[in-house]
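U., I forgot to send this yesterday:
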Amino acid sequence: MKKNIVILGSTGSVGKSALSLIKKFKNEFNVIGLSAGENVVELSKQIKIFKPEYVSLNNEKKAKILQKKFKNIKILSGLKGICYLASLKKVDVILLSIVGAAGLFPLLSAIKAGKKIALANKEAIIIAGDIINNELKKHKAQILPVDSEHSAIFQVLHGQKKEFIKKIILTASGGPFFKRDKEDFKKITKKEALNHPTWKMGEKITIDSATLVNKGLEVIEAHYLFDLPYEKIDVVIHPQSIVHSMVEFKDGSIIAQISKPDMKLPIMYALTYPERKENIVHSLNLKKGIKLDFKKIDKYKFRGFFLALKAGKVGGTMPACMNAANEIAVKNFIEGKITFDKITYYIEKAIKEHTLIKNPSLEDILRVDTDTRKKTQEVIDND
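Result:
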């Protein structure tokens, strides 16, 4: 039988990659619903090809215009729309690839509906990891990680006992500025920051990868996904991006998931788990020889990574504060309002001024998220 799929964030890089896979394996999937932010042109193309029953747009006015164009499809809008799609009864897998903290409510809706969730949004877990894990246990839902690093760990740990784990090792490409002098960071342009050496991704995550904040966020995500203390999570720079992550076991053995860097592999694994499909990515030609380098992260150059890690270890509302400040700082860099080096400056400023709530409710987390965004923007505007 075909799997019924909903893709939240269908016009982003992960959503489009997923749809290209679904098109290739059209006899195995049925697209029930799609959601997008503002990209009506791309969404309209997807509707014509995949013919979903439901579609949701963030913008209510654009949703009404789209409804006139596609009268046989139920067009929804706003947060209510994506949460409705996330909890549809007939759906087998929800692919959640909405960027940022905006993914929190549809994730909770999917969990409460007991769904399998192919998760390509890390921010929701980062800001509300304890709440999400409690809901997962209560509703017997399942998260299947789509991030290449967490998918690698998930694959390596399949069938292993938790007590065998010594540590997990996340790999980072190092981004475009791994060899750049710290003194030059203030001169870095948006075009340079978006020129990732390995992956083609959306703007926000690409900038996060350039600052290495993204890798700090991934450590927090791994902490919640795999229920491991921070001292059992390590990170190394691996410029070739062939080893997607590793697990070291207590007997000294290290097992890695290795492949060409292509997001289609973790996306497809999450959609078809526990099965695997043929020819998702091209095989590595080991006979040609492969260079594998591993290095530690420079604390001086990539302070953003250590700020994110610090926020995770402090816990409570600190990750929500850090994440909100980062999202606003990145947005302002993309808009040309601040320099690249100021991204981590505004994150650190927000962290230092934050009043921590140790065991926050969902309302506390949302208030911190909103307040930090507002305050960080005000500080930027007044600087």
